[in-house]
Amino acid sequence: MLGSFSYCNPTKLYFGAGAVEYLNDELPKYGKNVVLIYGAGSIKKNGIYDKVCEILKANGKCVTEISGVMPNPTLNKLYEGVDTARKAKADLLLAVGGGSVCDYAKAVSVSVNCDDDPWEKYYVRFEEPTCKIVPVGCVLTMTGTGSEMNAGSVITNTDTKMKVGHVFASEEVMPKFSVLDPEYTLTLPRYQMAAGIYDIFNHICEQYFSGEDDNTSDYIAEGLMRSLLHSSRIANKDMQNYEARSNIMWTATWALNTLISRGKSTDWMVHMLGQAVGAHTNATHGMTLSAVSLAYYRHILPYGLKKFVRFAENVWNIDGAGKTDEQTAFEGLSAMESWMKEMGLAMSISELGVTEDMIEKVADSVLVLTGGYKPLDRDEIVKVLKDSL
Q1: What is the pTM of this model?
Q2: How many helices (H) and strands (E) does the chain have?
């Protein structure tokens, strides 16, 4: 393990059935003004909203709400939330929902006391907060992003067609606490479950497909992938299987709480490609990732052949005996493709609304990162997108 690093993750987790009751332990630590943040209203149908409000009331909190946070939170919605939180003099932002709601709460938290435009400061110049950050807590209702235990936040600018993520360096941006009850995920539609599962898987891949040293982080990543494959197949057949869904939820957290990125570079180009597709189509995040993954990995495979062979053998149980490294590596990706189809994932960007005449504009929205095996130039971005059609 050749890299040097520091590691700290201050988020406290409460995991398991009935974990929402631990809000009673956390809420007294913060002032009376709580801004409750949630999405389109599904939490009102499944009873989570009523339970959270009951606990907030029992703890004497003054509650202001921000509702209607969309799956790809927009900049205009961020401005609205900042205004609401300022007027409420928020002492705590409590996000109840999936990763987008948690992402959004973190974006609000660093913007409430910011004198600059948050888009320009955080998502164009990628600066760090210099203002007081409002604490965030999360009650997670779907899995995938890992936002419950990291400092990342993704916002979409609908005017510029840019969907940009900022992983903040400050530990203060991380949620102070997160409540993870796997039962809350059992009501998700199959499409959303599958999208979340692939988001988890690709988070691991983004950190796995980089570097060639003997790195402990890669061994952990392989274990997480194998666990996810096992549990996803069970959940796909029985969506009410609590054990499988709890394992998926726990894997999602460890896939992106920065642990498996320690000591190595990371790629993230599948996310850059997928987020560009999402900015132009508003498609579900996990599906944008699945739609571009195979084309991207087949493109970079020759540059990271050794790791793709390891991926085939250690994750997909491909026997490389009597085969070239290229054959083994491509068999691994074929096994991955079969699993993706089994899960009902989007296998092309055309399924998500991208047409050939949109490719150049989507390519304009792709941010190029350099942590993977082959930094893409403009022509390669266009090729991967065309191959994803």
Answers
A1: 0.95
A2: 15, 8
Residue 309 has pLDDT above 90, yes or no: yes
Q: Where are the beta strands (DSSP E) in the chain?
A: 12-15, 33-37, 62-66, 92-97, 136-140, 152-157, 162-167, 177-180
CATH topology of domain 12-184: Rossmann fold (3.40.50)
**For the CA atoms of 246, 247, 250, 251, what is the dihedral angle to 10 degrees?**
-150
Convert the pLDDT of each residue in 87-118 to its tens digit: 999 999 999 999 999 999 999 999 999 999 99
For 58-87, give the DSSP string.
HTT-EEEEE----SS-BHHHHHHHHHHHHH
Q: Where do the domains of the chain lie?
A: 12-184, 190-387
Q: Which helix (H) or strand (E) holds 108?
A: helix 99-111
Tell me the C-alpha to C-alpha distance, in Å, between residue 175 and each of 14, 195, 220, 253, 333: 12, 23, 24, 13, 35
Cβ burial 31-49 (10 Å sphere, 16+ → b, else e):
eebbbbbbbeebbeeeebb
Distance of alpha carbon 327 from the chain centroid: 31
Radius of gyration for the chain, computed over Cα atoms and rounded to the nearest angstrom: 20
Distance in angstroms (rounded) separating the CA atoms of residues 25 and 34: 15
Q: How far apart are CA 122 and CA 110, in angstroms?
A: 9
Type of residue at 26: E
Q: How confident is the model at residue 66 (pLDDT cuts 50, 70, 90)?
A: very high
Fold of 190-387: Dehydroquinate synthase-like, alpha domain (1.20.1090)
Q: What angle do CA 335, 337, 342 make, to 5 degrees?
A: 95
- Cβ atoms 371, 205 nearer than 8 A: no
Measured between alpha carbons, how far is 15 from 252 in angstroms, rounded to an integer? 13
